[in-house]
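pasting input
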Amino acid sequence: MSDVATGLSSARTEVLADGTAVVTIGGSWNQDSSLPAIVVKGDRVRVVAEGLADFDSSLPAWLYANFKNVRHLDLSALPVRLQSLVQMAEKASSADERPPHPGFLEQFGTWGLESSASWGRAFEHIGHTAIGFLRMLVGRAKVNWSDFRLELQTSGVDALPIVALLGFLTGLIMAYVGLIQLRLVGATVYVANLVSLAMTREMGALMTGIIACGRTSTAYASQLGSMNVSQETDALRALGINPIEYLAVPRILAVTLMIPLLAVFATFIGVFGGMVVACAGDLSIEQYLTQAVRAISFKSFLVGFIKSIAFGFIAAWAGCYRGSVAKRSALGVGEAATSAAVLGITFIVISDALFAVIFNLFDL
Amino acid sequence: MSAGDILTCADLAIGHGDRVIMDRLNLSLAPGKILAIVGPSGCGKSTLMRALGGLDEPLGGKTTLMGVDLNASRGQQRQDILRRTGFLFQGSALFSSLTLRENIEMPMREFLKAPHREIRQLAEYKLALVGLADAMDKLPSEISGGMAKRAGIARAMALDPSVIFLDEPSAGLDPMSSGRLDELILRLREAFGTTIVLVSHEVPSILRTADFCVYLDPDTGTMGAYGPPKSFLQAGQPPKVHAFFSQARFD
């Protein structure tokens, strides 16, 4: 505690015979200095000033913090301006009215309820999207076709460079890893089979789907989330337009059409990447291409193509869904973008596993 | 204009980019007074307020805030001046990821050396001043527009500024909330002696709170009138100014 002699803020307490606590304040009070600590018991307090110099809001804040719950507070001995500053602060509700911090079980239960509600909303959104597509097919949906054309460009054509780069590097890495093992058994020629089959059935579609999640899902979540913040989606509803049909359907359709094409492109680039590595060492171009063509069957191509359609749908849907349920704040939009990428990639990997089982059952 | 004025501008020109929308602006304000900037939509009220507060560079002329020529102040000096001012923006501009209490604490943490507990105390007091003691732990997305305005004022007051700039504080509020906000502005001025510059369309609110009023006339591109707001209702004022105030009053 500082005192008047030093000019710093000071406070001292004495209790009168009738139980009234008299708090004497003095010195100079400002926001940058450390304030005195006091303990006052009882519900009758009188505050008086002695040698009180200048003060800023730190003094009324200190008085408010220490005496806000005192039943009989007498400030009449203080300067009028200070009285007014304390009285201006409306009494906060007492601390025990605030809800207690939830325990572990309650938190776990809340998390469970929120998760199940979130999954419910996700499936509801899938249902609405499906209905939107059906209504579009029968010509009853109000779809923003200018968005559709724009998204064909941004989610498809504009993604070609990154898809080419990652596809090439994926093929290249697989060829390197494959060669290490195949050299041991003198079967380096099969590196072409390994790369082309993996790219066609699996990696072409998977890499493109993941790129779409990082690039397109997040963009859609941000776009639709921002529209939520600025109440544009409410405006659409008010105009009698279903936001899912108007905003989500053209985006999902565009991405679902473009991702398979990008996946085919990534597949060929990946096979080429593998060829660069294979031909730099053990194989000739003719050998590599002959083996690659032998390895790729129509069935493999079909498997990759079907997967890429699903991955495209998932990536676009995840972005639209998370954007549509984003909280109305900058933080909410950021969270929506992050969760869209996470949701999209998770669903893509889960569906890839499901496809593996299904194709195995049908001997594809 | 006198030496004791806290805010002055001389031949000020404001605009967007190189386009001048208002010029030949001359005004001065003594400490503890409330100045209202009024005029039709799009005439440059908020732009003028931002220039007076040092947020934007004017296109010409001179602005002095708390004795410092804003045109000549750069870097740390400009930061120091801005620290001694508070702004309430049109949309309140509360940080959406922070609770109301954290919004108020943020500038305090940046600029004050006080310990954590005292900063918390100050933030709670400032929120209680504007009647938000019960909403301290809410996020901006969880409160109404009127509450957001009040929280914005609390943040503007966080560092006990000498001058507060309020951009349309009562816009979008119901008459009761608007009245309470006017009351709050007057009480803050009375208690802290704060100088207040506000942009407003609400003539009843201006008549209640402002000591002086400047009317910006988009047709002439300069001030149409300057003086106590009640005088704008009297005969002898430029017809446009008189019409603006009388019409708005009846509205």
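fyi The longest helix of chain B spans residues 175-192.
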